[in-house]
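Team,

Forwarding the record for the chain on the shared tracking sheet. I've put the sequence and predicted structure together so nobody has to dig through attachments.
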Amino acid sequence: MLALPAPSAEGFAKLHVPPAINKFFVPCAMREDAYLREHPKAHRAHAFLGLCETGDIEAITDLLSAHPSEEEDLEGPEVEVLRYQDPLRCMRSALHIAILAHQYTVAWLLLYFASSLEEYRLPSEVLLEASRLQVARDNGAEKVDIRALRDTDGRTAIDVAKEIGGAWDAWCLPDERGGFAAILASP
């Protein structure tokens, strides 16, 4: 068994282990902590993915509504929360993660918040929930549609939904068969 010394507070983010060993022996929490120390502006986006995975709608909207004033002084590139792709999770987006975690409401809300999908294509329950939550829609033409994001395996969210199947099968059927493939398909 490989025994790694406990890193100091200063050296924790600088923990470098060969990739083959890192993949199997360094606990995920240590990799996550090291990554977030190196990329402090990713904290909110990383937390957002965790909330999407657990389906905590209220916390998701609180996070999206809050102004990230603490991050303004941090170094590093800006991180867009809604379209963040986590390198610790195979570059999956929030939509990938919501689908993998079977969080249907979160997936619909992500389509509302971060896609160019026309509102008439969204279920009325999603529009009512979005209205109740009072979070503005972020569907700028210059921004990447969340449906177009690909993970490290080159899969979009619809590809992941097709692999999982089950209740996601309805999302993968062509429109003429009553499915939502046009909704999940990249614009």
